[in-house]
Structures are given as structure tokens and as C-alpha cells.
Amino acid sequence: MATSPSPLTVRTVAIPEDDPRRTAALLELLPDRSPVSWVRGGEGLVGWGCAARLDTSGPERFAAADAWWHSWCERVEVHDEVRLPGTGPVAFTSFAFADRPGDSVVVVPEVVVGSRDGVRWITTVGQPSTAPRLPVGEPGAVRYDAGAVSPERYRRSVAEAVRILGPGGSGHAIGSDGEAVRKVVLAHDLLATTAEPLDARYLLGNLAARYPGCWSFAVDGLVGATPELLLERTGRRIRSRVLAGTTWPRPGVSADELASTLLGSAKDLSEHAFATESLAAELRPFCGELAVPERPEVLRLRNVLHLASHITGELHEHAASNGVAALLRLAAAVHPSAAVGGTPTPAAVSLIGRLEGMDRGRYSGPVGWVDDAGNGELGIALRCAQIEDGGSPGGAGGRARLFAGGGIVAGSDPDLEVAEAAAKMLPVREALDGLG
């Protein structure tokens, strides 16, 4: 008589006080050059190994990922002694920006180490493979070259967008509902080539050290430190941090002066309002309560200052209980937000296809983690690089694509937009150059 195979076991236990892993920095625990990470201020999740993986693409990528993840969770046996968000089965996700075919991925690590509110735990799937921890490798000299879209080509795209969005030009960008596009988000890339193999942990460590208030992430070679939280779900509570409207340090101008100017800029306030209003509109059908600040605050980072709004809400009970508001389902409803697409979003995204001139891949798509209860955190993949070729020890060096962009409205200055994109690329460039 045939017997059914035993289900895979997912086990979460607290790490004891006397275990060195209890006090080590999470990023220092990563054993190899292919980590997954979601860490902010020393807390979060890191993982390694691959127990399961889904590659998906197209307009149904979020639904496909959600269905696959729930199916996988139903087939495993869970022993969770900690029972916090991020314990038990956890998957790391990274989605392509565009609906067209492209790389979106869900990865279930063999090992996850998490830290939250003073609790440190480890989750294992099955019998994880063991290997010695490899030392973090430095990339050596870094050479930068224009990517698919050079800064000058980006400037021309911005100038064309300003012409289209300005008086007399709106007829070239009309949505299906007859509303003219008011904002479009454009981006460009930069190619970095390293003399030595490129270790994602090197980038992560330097980014986390310089930007502890951002979420330092790594999923399938996409590495960055994003300041923007698309969605966090914990039970029925949801949260988002919307960023739109940017300035950056200039000689002779204090941070307080920059912040005051940003808060008084009609152009930046308008751009920010587009982003907050569109996200709130997409979330309201799922929520019984939704709080949107009347005015933004200023988020100060080393390289830029952003207008920021914290949106919070509580899901309808039926939405929270029947699966339609699981984190990945919510992501499908709100992506792309106006912060990375434009307003109105469908027509703005179409305009991006006409003007931008490159495939963003997973840049500006949702990135983060989800657990088996549909809770988790998804940021927007900003201030990041896609490692295209990590190289190999003793062989050739590595290669990565860096991305940056900004929201374009009728009053945008193409030269200032090029400068803003350069400021937004600084975190990854400095991380590659060894500034931690």
C-alpha cells in the first residue's frame, strides 16, 4: 500500500539569549552573496537558501503570486513557537513595474532570521543545506557608463513630457475617461562595472549604515534602500508612507531652508497631492477607516528631502477575512501608484511607454515580504540596483544597473530633473564606492 509523502515542515523558534545570533546585526548573519533582506533600523527579516520559487509576469502576476503562495502554505506543516508577523512561512517578493512580460519573483528561503520588538527568531524549511559563511567581498574599482537611457536622453524625455503636459499639449495625453495626464514619472539608468565580483551583502551593509530609516532590501539580485512604503498589513491594519516632491542639498543652503522651500513649493505640493489622493482612492473600497493627512511633512535623508504622508487605515472585516485584502491582492489594486506612474495612472503609464525608452524591470515595482496570514510589508523598489552579473571568485568582475527618476508635471525644469535623478542615485553609488 502506497503512503503519502510527509509534508514539508516549517519551524519557527525563538533564538536563546546566549546564542550569538541573538545579538548579531541581521545583515551580518547572511552567509553568501545571494541573500534576501528587508531590514530597517536593525529590525526586519533576512534569509538565504531557496525552498521554493515562483517566476511570473504579466498583468495577473500579483494574483498568480498570491494563489501560488497560499497553495504552497496549505501543503506544509507549521510549528510556530513565536507567533509574530513574519514568523512561520515567509516569502520574499519582487514584482516588475510593468504589466508586459518581465521578471517577477516569489522566493521562499530555507532559513529566515527575524527581529521585532526585542524578539529574535529563526525559521527553517525542511532540512536546510549548510555551508560555511563566505566573507563579504569588496567590488574594487567601479566604472560607470550610460545605461539604456543616458542623462541627456533622459533630459530630452523630460522636456517632451513638459511640452505634452503644458498648456496646449494636454491633447496628446488623455486618459480613457477624458481626463488629461497631470503627472508622469520618468526614469533612467546607469551601468556600473566592478573590477571584482559584486557581493549583494556589501551593498546592503553600506546602504543600511547610511540610511537606517530606509528599508534595506534584496530579492533575486535587486538590492537597494527604499524610503517609500507602498503597503504594510498587520491583521486588519494597513499603513503606507507616500513620497512625492523632492529637493536635495546645495552649497550654502541649510537643511531647514530646503525643507521650508519644499513645503512652500506649489509644484511639489501638487505632485505630492496627486500621489496621496490616488493611493487613498484605491484603498478606500477595502477600508472602513482611512486617515490621510491634510498636509505632508518633510522626510530628511542624506541625499534628498522628500514630502511625505503617512496613510493609515483599517480593512473592512469581510475584506480582511475572505482573502481579497491579502497583501499581494492589495498590491495589485494600488500598483502602480501615482508616485511611480503618474496621474491618471493608466494614461500616465502609457505615456511612460512612449517617452522613457527602457525596460524598468523590477525597479519601482513592489518589493518586500509576506507571511502565510497575508500580512507583510511591501516597499517600492527605489534607490536600487539590479545585479546583472555578480561575477565569480577568481573570474571577471560584476555588473549592475542603477535606476532613478522623478515625477514630471507641467512646471518641471528638465535640468533640475536630471540633477534630482543624480541625487537619487547617490546612495547606491556611494555604497558601491565603499561609503558605509
- The parts where pLDDT drops under 50 for at least 5 residues are none
Q: What is the 3D shape?
A: globular
CATH superfamily: Anthranilate synthase
In this structure, how is the largest beta sheet organized? 13 strands, mixed
Helix percentage range: 25-40%
Radius of gyration: 22 Å
State the secondary-structure class.
Answer: alpha+beta
Number of domains: 1
Class, according to the CATH hierarchy?
Answer: Alpha Beta
CATH T-level fold name: Anthranilate synthase
**Terminus-to-terminus distance:** 61 Å
Q: Overall mean pLDDT score?
A: 93
Figure out the total of helices.
9
Total strands: the figure is 23
CATH architecture: 4-Layer Sandwich
As a percent range, the share of strand residues is 25-35%
Keywords:
436 residues, 10-stranded antiparallel beta sheet, 9 helices, 33% strand, globular
Summarize the structure.
The protein is α+β, with helices and mostly antiparallel strands and 436 residues long. It has one domain (8-127, 140-432): Anthranilate synthase (4-Layer Sandwich), CATH 3.60.120. It has helices at residues 61-74, 151-165, 200-210, 255-263, 266-283, 317-321, 327-334, 345-355, 414-432; strands spanning 8-14, 36-40, 43-48, 52-56, 76-80, 90-94, 104-108, 111-116, 119-125, 142-146, 183-194, 215-219, 222-226, 229-234, 237-247, 287-291, 297-300, 305-315, 342-343, 366-371, 376-380, 384-389, 399-408.
